Amino acid sequence: MFYFEKEEEKRHLCDSLMLSIAKGILEEEEREREEAKRRYIAETCPPVSMPRTMQELQDLCKEIHRKIDGIDEERYDLEMKVNKANKEVEYNPIKVQDLMGKFKKPVLKKVRMSADAMLKALLGSKHTVNLDLRANLKQVKKEDKDLRDVGDWRKNIEDKSGMDGRKKMFEAEA
C-alpha cells in the first residue's frame, strides 16, 4: 500500500509540474502574439491625421480607394489560386487511379430476389408493381368478316387486273 501511494504522489507531482510549465509556455506565446499584433498594426496602419481642407479629405479618400482596389485584386488572385488547388486536389485521386491502370472491382454479394420483390424494394411498399405485362395489354376482338372476304386469292387478283380492276378499286374506296 505504502509503495503504491508514493508512486501515485510522484505521478501527481509530475503531472502538476507539466501543467504549470505548459501554462507558462502558453502565456508566453499569448504575449508574443499580442506583441506581434501591435507591431504589425504600427507598421501597416500609421496614425490617421484628420485632414483640415476638402482637398486633403478627397486625397485621403482616393488613397483609401486605391488601397482597397489593390487588396481586392490580391484577394481575387488568391481566391483563384485556392480554387485551382482545390480542383487539382479533387482530380488527383482520379489521376492516380488512371496511372495505376486497373480498377479493382468490388466483390458483390449475390442476392436471389424475384423481379417483383426487387421492384417493390426499389419503389417502396406504397407502390404495387405487377410484372404480368399481358394483363396491361388492351383486348382486341378479331373480326371474322375480313377473314371471310379474302376467299380465293386467284379470283381476287383476276378481278383487280387490267383497267377494269383499277376502276373497281377506286369505286370501292369512294
UniProtKB/TrEMBL annotation:
Keywords: Acetylation, Actin-binding, Coiled coil, Muscle protein. The keyword Coiled coil applies. One of its GO terms (cellular component) is troponin complex. InterPro entries: Troponin, Troponin_I, Troponin_sf. GO terms for biological process: cardiac muscle contraction; skeletal muscle contraction. GO terms for molecular function: actin binding. Gene3D superfamilies: 1.20.5.350, 6.10.250.180. Residues 19-88 form a coiled coil. Troponin I is the inhibitory subunit of troponin, the thin filament regulatory complex which confers calcium-sensitivity to striated muscle actomyosin ATPase activity. Binds to actin and tropomyosin. Belongs to the troponin I family. This is Troponin I, fast skeletal muscle. It comes from Pundamilia nyererei.
